[in-house]
Structures are given as structure tokens and as C-alpha cells.
Amino acid sequence: MQLHIAYMGSLPEGQYLPSSQHLTMLQEVVESSSLENILVRSYKRSFNGFAAKLTDNERQKLSSMEGVVSVFPSRTFHLQTTRSWDFMGLNESISRKHILSAFDDAIADGVDLITISIGYATENEFNEDPIAIGAFHAMANGILTVNSAGNNGPEASSLSSVAPWLFSVAASTTDRLIVDNIILGNGRKIEGTSINSFSFNGKKLPLVRGKEISFDSCSTDDAEICALGCLDSSKVEGKIVICDELYGYGAAREAGAVGTIMKIDPLKEISYVTSFPASAINSTEYNAVLSYKNSTTY
To answer: What are the residue boundaries of the Peptidase S8/S53 domain, all occurrences included (predicted)?
Structure first.
């Protein structure tokens, strides 16, 4: 027997007693004579559904019932770092206890779901930011939203909390450096940082700078940092793009590059998760890559 979540879509209009319906449904599928402790929770604020302890056979029966969208096992997600609290300088005996108790109080007050909003969108980006839009609708439906601010120099304008259901916390990262080496064609090893599982398996690929593959309408500065919309995908295919800034990663990937090398100066002891081959290096190593590129013909 395992804890499962039964998702039934949005809540019906008008008078509706979720717990009553959920118990009725369980009576039809549960094989034991007693429903005691079978129904763990009925969700009734943000969506229609419930959590219940079910056998695999009971799960299959419930999945086939009318009105049930899906039934899936309940999962417990664990932190991906062991020392975020210490890294942020939080005291174990006081700070952790108070922050965690705030979540406990919110859940005890009947909050069905907690959403996470990372960072913040500018006014122009808000209407296109899925995280911001999702957080807005969550708040409108009484769901506690955790808004995480950036840590690169907090300022008064970088975060605001104007509603009682919005819980603001500082964003954190981890001081773990994961090295991802770049091997140039002459055999020189350049030490970069990133978290990815990609490998070219020794295959040699050409290097190009943003200005060599950008549209004429883009300025040289925008081309060198690989600004979004500047890279010509017809000139990117099969190449590793060199970008003057970390933010060029997204544009290079969108244009179809097979990888990217980005300059970050100073290079912090933080490794970023990337969804395709990419590595960040400091300005000294970056200049070494450019020197190699300029001395090599393809």
C-alpha cells in the first residue's frame, strides 16, 4: 500500500463537498472493509483531488473512474545541497526553526499547495513570464506563493511583498565548484565550470564568436555577448559559440549551437546547470581560447 495523489481537475461550480465525494469514490475501489486512515487529505482550495493510501490494484480501479484525470504516487523531494543554511549564515537552532514553522502554520491554516516563484520579472517581461503568471494566479486562488529574490546585491527594488499570502525568502545557491574542462585542438586544457552530462567524445568542432554569426542589424557589442535574437541559426549549426557574457548561453542554444563557451569575470565558485554542452571561464582563460581560435583555420 502506497500513498497516491488522485487529481480530478478544477473544482466544480456551486455547492460541492469534496471530502464526501472522495470518500464515496474510495468506497468503490478500496478492497479493505474499513476506510479508516485510507483518505489522508482532500484538496478543496486550489484544485479537486485527494491523497489516499492505495494498493496497485486499487490505484488502477481509481484511475479508470469517471472524473479522475490521473493517479500518481506521492513523492518526497529532497534538497540538492547539504549546506545552504550554513552558506547563507543562518543559525541552525533559531533561523531554521522559525522559517520552517512559518510553512507549518500556513499548511495548518488550510493551504493546499505552495508554489515557488524564483527571481522576479520586470514590468515588460511580466506578461510573458510563465513563473510570474503562475504565481499571480496561485495567489488569486489563495495559494501560498514563495517568492525568491536574487542574491547578487539585494536592493529595496529587487523584491516586494505586498500581500499576506506572499512569503518572501532569499534565494540561495551552494558553494560547490564543479569543473568542466574544455580541450582545445592543440591539446591545451582550459578549466571551466558547469553541471552537465554531455560529452563530444573527442570530436573536434569549430569555434565561432558572436560577431561572426550575427545578423547585420545587431551591434558589435550585442553580437559579442550573443544577445537574444542576434545569432543567425544558419551560421551556427555544428559549431561551438563563444560569448562575452554568461547570458549568451540561451541565445546560442536557441540558435542551434552544439555548445557554448561563456566568459564570467570574476569567475565565482558556483557551477550552473546547463541543458546542452556549455562551460563558463574567467577572462584569462577566455582570452586564451580567443587566441587559439584566431591562430587556427577550419
So the answer is: 89-205
* Digit-coded pLDDT (tens) for 90-132: 555 555 555 555 555 544 444 444 444 444 454 444 455 555 5
Mode of pairing for the β-strands spanning 259-263 and 278-281? parallel
- Own/partner long-range contacts of 29-35 (Cβ < 8 Å, ≥24 apart): 29/54, 29/58, 29/61, 29/62, 29/65, 30/54, 30/58, 31/55, 31/57, 31/58
Instruction: Check if the beta carbon of residue 271 is closer than 8 Å to that of residue 194.
Output: yes
The verdict on 240 and 137 lying in the same domain is no
Structural domain boundaries, residue 92? 84-170
Whether residues 125 and 205 fall in one domain: no
Residue 79 covered by a domain: no
pLDDT single digits (tens) 5-45: 999 888 888 788 888 889 999 999 988 777 778 999 888 77
pTM: 0.52
Sign of CA dihedral 207, 281, 121, 142: positive
